[in-house]
Structures
1.
Amino acid sequence: MIFCKQMILDCLYISLQITEDVSFIRAIKVKEMRDLGVNDKTIAHSLTIFDKTMDNWKDMCVRKILTCYPMIARGQLKFDDWDSAMKYLQENR
């Protein structure tokens, strides 16, 4: 079970690192769009889609982790969404 818990923490940490990289890419995207003269409405629309896609990805990551965790020990995981998963990661690092 210790091995499984560590694997979950590693998966959560990797997922967190990916979201941080994507956040950086989002900032670059906004800068490039502004530099190209894209209007604010189009930028806002693009960012809404970008953010929704990231939220869906985060939800999918947590669902996959929960689904793959051994059923017998699933009660040990104290998260069920992205925010609680990140809190769990912080508390168990």
Note: The helical segments are 2-35, 40-68, 82-92.
2.
Amino acid sequence: MDLMPDISFPFWVEAILTLGIAIVAYVSGKMKEKSNRAIKLKKHDEINWEVHSQIHEFLTELRVKTHAGRAQIVQFHNGEYFIDGISMYKLSTTHESLKNGLSSNEKKLLLVTMFSALMDKLETNQPQLYKTSEEKPSYFKNTLDLGSVDYFMALPLFYGGAKSGFIMMEWCGETDSEYAVNNEGVIKIELLHTRNIVQTKLSQQIKDLK
């Protein structure tokens, strides 16, 4: 005797059941996708304080060794878009080490185009000591003058083969500026070494988030 008799449903009932199952599966999939996205965003929002602390220590060590007044890391990021669809690339100071008595000369949420004079120098990817008074009038030169910068040196930072920002050193005052001029070769080596370490730290931080 068949204890489980066949149960047949009208076509429209089967169609509704099938549709209901499909809807439940779709909603469940979307909720899972949303949950995964939230977890991923939360992970990206987490700050690796140890890495940033190490980067600041490397910057401070570089600044002290080279008698610089400021050592900074500035990174590029995408802002909004111009009306023609071109991206408004911006830059912000993310790390800075200062000599006692000097004010911060941070660059925050500024358009990269405002620093075109510096961007041209970064194209060489070679450290070189520049004298502020010899720079052509520009927004970039104005920021140096406001920060009482006599000499500066900068190198680009890279991620995935593209420029992601730059590391910059500034000398302020006669004594420190004289040291920079007389020890340019040593400073170049120190800057290259620190740039490579900072690039590795920043890249590792991004890999840890994936």
Note: The radius of gyration is 27 Å.
